[in-house]
Each structure stands twice: as structure tokens, then as C-alpha cells.
Specification:
0% strand, 78% helix, globular, 262 residues
Length: 262
């Protein structure tokens, strides 16, 4: 199941709030300089870093699990968003682009297949933890982290924070996520930790494919083929996310320009 009823009840209102808030912030900051316009993204980035720091500290105190090492697909927020917000060198536009793509990827997953990001049990556990009825802080981290990450997508779109140069951008996205797969794919096997589903898939239909491949050609070769297939997907999804970001940014700003002209 791609969506559960609990995802519907919690995510659709979130998307509406995110869009309205991003639109309000965009209008309020439209005449400010770029650093001022970047302030909402900076605040979100700091919140993501604080959440991650709290998770790491909690993990160290309670007993560390290698699954908490920030090498997941969505962990790229922790690397590219700080660079996009606080680095001011000549490559800032590249960091902004990849940060925008990271945000777009999370939005796509949350819009299409939120149940693979976190389950409805995770939502229940988060509320139990926040209301003092048990639950798990790690689920609080998971739900809030992806919620803030999704909001940053709306900021990129409504504020028009990225300048697009398609040929160069596509190459950069392929190289960035190709390097991610090259580093994290083998490392996940080495320590048997399911970063980015490289060891096994949380999506039942993909896990079935993985097991069938292993049965057909053997465990080692089958797992290698599975990692390669997943790597292709890990590159294609950000490419799709890039064009979604580009098209939605163009749509919003074209419409805004038309309203201004009118």
C-alpha cells in the first residue's frame, strides 16, 4: 500500500499548509536580497541539523545502531542544504541545485509512496512520544525530519531559489548520485546496514525482485545485480525530481509574473 489512511489524514493537510506558508514567505521576502530570501531555508536547515544531532546523541546514550549513520538517501539534506545556505563561494549555485533536487526527491516520495518513507506505526509512535505515552524519539525524528524536508521543496519552488541550466544540471545530478551509489552501495553491504534499501527493499515488490534474482543467479551475484538496479533507480529518481522542480518553479513564477503584469 503506497498510502495508508493515516498518511492521507496527516500529509494532505501538511502539503496545504506548506504551500500556503511558502507562498506567504515568498511574497513577504520578494523584494529582499538573496540572503534574506534564503532565511526560511536556513532555519529549516538548522532544524534538520539539530534533529539529527539529537538523534545521534540519543543513539550514543541508548546504544548505537549502524542504521543511524547518516548515509540514507534523505541524509543528503545534512550535507547539501548547509552548503547551499552557508557556503558563499563560486560553487554555491551547484550546492543550491543539488539541495533543491534533494528536497524534490523527498517531496516525490512523500507524494507518491509515503509508506516506504515511514509507516503509519511510525506516526502513531511519534504522537505517543510527543504526548508522553511511550513511543520512540527515533520515530519523532523520522516524521519531523521528512516533514521539514518536504517543506523545503515548497520553499525552493515558491521562492525560485535555483537557476536552471539543464545540460549542466543533468550532468551534476548524475555525477552526485552516481558517487553516492558508488560509496554507499558497497558500504551498506560491508556493514550489513540497509542504507537506501541497498541491502534489502522496504517496498514489497522490489524485495520480491531482489529475492528472485538471488534465487536465479546466486546470492553474491544476485545481490550485486540488485544493487546495480537500485543504483540506476537512485539516479533516475533525482533526474525526475530535477525536472519536477524546474517545471513547478517555472509554472509558479510564470503565473506570478502574469498576475504582476495584470
Amino acid at each position: 500500500m503506497f498510502w495508508t489512511p493515516l498518511h492521507v489524514y496527516t500529509l494532505i493537510p501538511q502539503f496545504i499548509v506548506y504551500a500556503v506558508l511558502a507562498a506567504v514567505l515568498s511574497r513577504a521576502l520578494k523584494d529582499k536580497d538573496f540572503e534574506a530570501r534564503l532565511l526560511p531555508l536556513k532555519i529549516c536547515t538548522v532544524l534538520l541539523l539539530l534533529l539529527e544531532a539529537a538523534k545521534q546523541i540519543t543513539g550514543i546514550v541508548t546504544g548505537y545502531d549502524t542504521y543511524w549513520i547518516p548515509l540514507h538517501f534523505c541524509s543528503l539534506f545534512l550535507f547539501f542544504h548547509p552548503a547551499a545556505c552557508f557556503y558563499k563561494g563560486k560553487h554555491r549555485d551547484k550546492f543550491l541545485l543539488i539541495a533543491g533536487v534533494v528536497s524534490s526527491c523527498v517531496f516525490l516520495f512523500m507524494a507518491v509512496y509515503p509508506n516506504v518513507v515511514y509507516s503509519d506505526d511510525a506516526i502513531r509512535s511519534m504522537w505517543a512520544c510527543l504526548t508522553g505515552r511511550g513511543g520512540s524519539f527515533f520515530e519523532v525524528h523520522t516524521v519531523l525530519f521528512h516533514g521539514i524536508g518536504t517543506f523545503t521543496f515548497f520553499l525552493f519552488v515558491f521562492q525560485g531559489l535555483v537557476e536552471f541550466h539543464t545540460k549542466k544540471d543533468v550532468k551534476l545530478v548524475i555525477i552526485t548520485y552516481g558517487l553516492y551509489c558508488l560509496i554507499v552501495g558497497p558500504f551498506a553491504q560491508l556493514i550489513d546496514t540497509n542504507f537506501n534499501n541497498f541491502v534489502r527493499s522496504n517496498a514489497p515488490f522490489l524485495e520480491d525482485i531482489r529475492l528472485r534474482i538471488r534465487d536465479c543467479i546466486g546470492a553474491v551475484l544476485g545481490q550485486t545485480v540488485y544493487v546495480l538496479i537500485l543504483s540506476v533507480g537512485t539516479i533516475l529518481v533525482p533526474l525526475l525530481a530535477y525536472f519536477v522542480l524546474k517545471w513547478m518553479t517555472a509554472l509558479f513564477h510564470h503565473r506570478k509574473a502574469g498576475e504582476t503584469a495584470a
